[in-house]
Amino acid sequence: MDYLLTEHFDVSGDWFLPNQRDWKVGGTLSWKADGARLKLNDQLDDPPKGTMTLGIDTFDAKYQAVHGITNSSEAVTALDTRLAGYSLQSGSSGVLRVPLTLHCNTVVVGGYVGADTKYTEMLFRVPGLEAWSSTKSIYQNVSDGKINLSTAKNLDEVINLNELDSELILRTGHRANVGAHSASIKTSGYFGLRPREPQSLSWFFDQTPKITNLLTLLAGAPMSIDQMLAKTGPSEPSFSVLKRQFGEKYCDYNQQREFFVSRSEVTDFSRLWTNWLFQYEKVKEACSLAISVLTVDDLWTNVQFLSLMQALEGLHRALFDGTYMSANTYEGVRDAIIKSIPDGVSSDHRDALRARIEYGNEWSLKKRITSLVARLPNEVRRTALGEIGSVPQKWIDTRNYYTHWDEKLRPQILGLEEMYYAGVRLKLLLRALYLQLAGVSDETMVKAMGNNSEVSRQIRYLNQASR
Questions:
Q1: How far apart, in whole angstroms, are the C-alpha atoms of residue 127 and residue 134?
Q2: Could you give the CA distance from residue 134 to residue 365 in angstroms, rounded to a whole number?
Q3: How far apart, in whole angstroms, are the C-alpha atoms of residue 117 and residue 230?
Q4: How many structural domains are present in the chain?
Q5: What burial class does residue 391 get, using C-beta atoms within 10 Å of its C-beta: 0-12 exposed, 13-18 middle, 19+ buried?
Q6: Are residues 63 and 177 in the same domain?
Q7: In this structure, what are the phi and psi dihedrals at residue 128, rounded to the nearest 5 degrees?
Q8: What is the C-alpha separation between 225 and 128, in angstroms, rounded?
Q9: Are 6 and 244 in contact (CB under 8 A)?
Q10: pLDDT tens per residue, range 53-64
Q11: Is the sign of the CA dihedral 296, 302, 305, 310 positive or negative?
Q12: Do both 141 and 73 map to the same domain?
């Protein structure tokens, strides 16, 4: 089952509700990366459960699962469908038809499942993962003018994820295409999750960003999923699972040297995942913002810079308190300041001042970022930020200007070219901070910053130009 999240396809067949197998309706399911549309020739309910009034959009159709038999006799399930549109058709036959269009974010191809179906394992294919994992799968032998290609069966690498009550599996697969005059072998990398107790699809979907985000930070390239396979039992066949994507980017690296930190450079891989999952819930929103900026190349320069600064501040807020005094102590200070507001201040102005005073105990942006940078070893700081090894005041002023539009800051803000170069440094700084959080050693980080990955080449060229 090679249904990919990235490829558009259409399947036609008969569709029905799980508890109404005798009432089947013809229709076509169209899959695109932004979800699925199921266009039906008539309503699914028999008798109809919705209400219809001509001219008034009161017809409702929501189904947890819709099953289908395609024209090629394949079983398909559309999950959590919502009405996208309908019409009323009445002609010379005297039969009223209600063609429906249903929208759904999740499709299962290869079996009939329900919203409450539990799965024992899911595999996720990630372009570039086979190269990142540093395992060789294809071997070439030339002898007597003959070229022999062979593939190795690599053993799964299995890591216990106690924080998820699950196992993480790293696996390499391959596909051969052999003809009379041509032959090719394509390898693929997968990670899998095998919980100790069967789980719903939503559980697996909730866990995957925890895996792909760390892989992306390590790899220096987006490690997004383009195929998903699920099993309801160890001896059961795999279903192909399709879920709506949101502008995912994919890795096109095929050499280990292209990655920032590859699998072979992480010595205690199991410990890395333990550290990461222990911290993840605290930083997941900030990390999501960071990943979205790190993996997109076509953001406008000023939008990229501001997003990176926001991601940096978000990381500090997620990890640390960031206040000048305890909340209890500040209550007295806050109340005293509020009482000192002159009586002549208007009520709306007073409310605005109160709101500012509420946040008066929080660290400034500069103090937050300085605190984060100080966590990194000196060599990493100087590589990421230049010889000074600290965040320039102009970065702070630029972010504050675009946030508060304080005209006094305008003379100090960065130009677009300076913003672009600052973005290069901020990306490396964020990556280093998150990898330090996961437990990547200082030695590994310093080595990575001097390798041939795109991340490292960019900062190296920038530092050479600065000198």
A1: 14
A2: 40
A3: 11
A4: 4
A5: buried
A6: no
A7: 90, -15
A8: 10
A9: no
A10: 444 444 566 889
A11: negative
A12: no
Q: How far apart are CA 299 and CA 297, in angstroms?
A: 6
Q: Domain for residue 89, yes or no?
A: yes
Q: Could you list the residue range(s) of the whole structural domain that residue 421 is in?
A: 282-322+363-466
Domain boundary among 109, 134, 157: 109
For residue 149, count other CB atoms closer than 10 A to its CB: 13
| Residue 306: partners with Cβ closer than 8 Å, 6 or more residues away | 399, 402, 403
Compute the distance between CA of residue 247 and CA of residue 83 in angstroms, rounded to an integer.
24
Other C-beta atoms closer than 10 Å to the C-beta of 162 total 13
As a whole number of angstroms, the distance between CA 261 and CA 134 comes to 11
User: Measured between alpha carbons, how far is 259 from 257 in angstroms, rounded to an integer?
Assistant: 6
pLDDT of residue 47 exceeding 70, the answer is no
CB proximity list for 441: less than 8 A, separation 6 or greater: 267
**Of 108, 91, 289, the residue nearest 205 (C-alpha):** 108
Q: Report the length, in residues, of the chain.
A: 467
pTM value is 0.89
pLDDT, tens only, 290-320: 999 999 888 899 999 999 999 999 999 999 9
Lowest-confidence pick of 283-287, 297-301, 407-411, 422-426:
297-301
Number of H helices, E strands in the chain: 12, 17
